[in-house]
Design a protein that fits this description.
It contains ten helices and seven strands. The protein is an alpha/beta fold. It has a seven-stranded mixed β-sheet, with helices on both faces. The longest helix is centred in the last third of the chain and has 23 residues. The structure holds S-adenosylmethionine.
């Protein structure tokens, strides 16, 4: 399946992540600021520390780590539909899983079958962009969140100007695709990454999507340094 076919049929994306699961942590460690940015987004949620959090599209658990730092008395359910990525996460958090603080579930994020109002918080890092239907995905998240619950969408979402698009294309095709393909032996998912970001919603569009689907107090914040035009956290509260 080509990267264009992946854009057209995103339900195959998790299977492509299986191919790169073992090299994923190394590749993202090489991406300066990757973990720090996740930590920043988790901090921006301003949690009490005892919440029940859904880490949607948790991958190998880098987002889980960021959320765990903010939840000394809380718990996390990590959901992902790639067996390979989840296996990496399971190994990393064996102690927390044993203690019942973290649980990982293989599941399609488009079909969340948790009860209504299960979670206090949903953290979705580099996830929404991979959903075949953004609105349906947000509606599913809205259903499983408690009234007053918080959502954080953390993703490559380009600011609304030509510079951001050109900047991302150069970064993507000039660095991310060649470097990560060499590292993982697979170029498809990284070419898909670059294309999917070019096709994704801008920060203000994510804000509108949330407001139109039952969320309020939406805050859009860019990340630091060279990621400023391309990476944002969008935080909102489910209307009570
Ligand atoms: C770029 S990784 C992000 C992982 C993690 N959140 C992080 O911040 O490092 C995206 C993850 O989304 C998962 N994913 C994509 N589509 C999915 C779907 N429909 N349901 C569940 N997981 C999905 C992939 O398997 C992959 O692990």
């Amino acid at each position: 399946m080509s990267s264009i076919q992946l854009i057209q049929n995103k339900s195959f994306v998790p299977k492509e992540f299986n191919r790169v699961a073992r090299s994923y942590d190394f590749a993202t460690t090489m991406s300066q600021g990757y973990q720090e940015d996740l930590n920043t987004s988790a901090k921006r949620l301003q949690l009490r520390g005892d919440e029940k959090l859904l880490d949607l599209c948790c991958g190998t658990g880098k987002s889980t780590r960021a959320c765990l730092n903010e939840l000394p008395n809380g718990s996390i359910v990590g959901v992902d539909n790639s067996e390979g990525m989840l296996a990496e996460a399971q190994a990393k958090f064996a102690e927390e899983v044993k203690a019942g603080k973290v649980k990982f579930v293989l599941k399609d994020a488009m079909h969340l079958n948790f009860d209504d109002h299960t979670f206090d918080v949903v953290f979705m890092a580099y996830g929404l962009r991979n959903m075949p239907d953004y609105e349906k995905s947000i509606q599913g998240i809205h259903r499983v969140l408690k009234p007053g619950g918080k959502i954080c969408i953390h993703d490559y979402s380009l600011s609304n100007n030509l510079f951001s698009k050109i900047y991302w294309a150069i970064l993507g095709y000039g660095f991310i695709v060649p470097f990560c393909s060499l590292l993982s032996g697979s170029s498809k998912i990284y070419t898909y990454l670059v294309k999917s970001v070019l096709n994704f919603l801008q920060p203000e569009q994510i804000k509108n999507l949330l407001e139109q689907n039952g969320f309020e107090k939406v805050e859009v914040q860019p990340h630091a340094s060279w990621r400023k035009p391309i990476l944002h956290s969008v935080i909102a509260v489910k209307r009570a």
